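Issue 218. Parser rejects a valid record. Input:
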Amino acid sequence: MSAETTARAAPAERSQGRTVSETATLTNGAVKGPSQLQRNLQRFLIGNKLNLIGLIIVIIFFVLAIFGQLLAPQDPYAQDITGSKLLGPSLAHLMGTDELGRDLLSRVMTGTRISLQVAAVVLTFAVLFGTLVGSVAGYFGGIVDELLMRFTDMFLAFPALILAIAIAASLGRDLKWTMVALSTVFWPWYARLVRGQILSIRERDFVTQPRASACRVSSSYSDTSCQTPFRSSSFSSRSTSATPSWRPVHSPSSALAHSHPLRSGAP
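Output the parser choked on:
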């Protein structure tokens, strides 16, 4: 009897083991296959040649920013006023020389690092400060929005480059003042953009529509616009429930009986 039971159980165990092995194979194949990130990168780079060219230019820019001074063919600070002043492109100077005889290609490769530092500092300050101002203006609205946007319009009223030149000239010729001047003229654009996005989100249905139980939204969005209708509706429901929905009905005969003592049976 035990031998028959074992013989019957053996095919089931083999089939179960085959199913487990096939599942493991499929799982391993799914893991070994390209992920969603890899497919997106392939579509982004291979599907569009312009994206690939832009990525190559950015990589070259970062390589020059890191190793530009080491890869420069000549000393970017060496001057030769007598024999190498304002020369055109040649094999010795691929981009020519300036008025002091310095090699322009070496100076461009060396100055890439400074340009990258200035761009990183200016964009970081402009994005952070502009996002803060735009978020506060769009979230609170009212007088806060009015004051912040009029303050932003003061900077947008002047041409950006002219205002930056004026600020840098008044502060000094140091590089840090140049970064301050550029940051001052670029943050209002980000403030306007973020404020517009916040205002558009506040007017959407999932924010303004009141809920039956509670009005909850994500912490990244404003919830003031959806709390007010819910509170008003709850207040109206409370006021409605406080008023009795039934009223005693008095017929003319009953009212007359209560008003006349003889009809009511009183002596």
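Fixed in the parser; the record now loads. Residues 1 and 7 are 10 Å apart (CA to CA).
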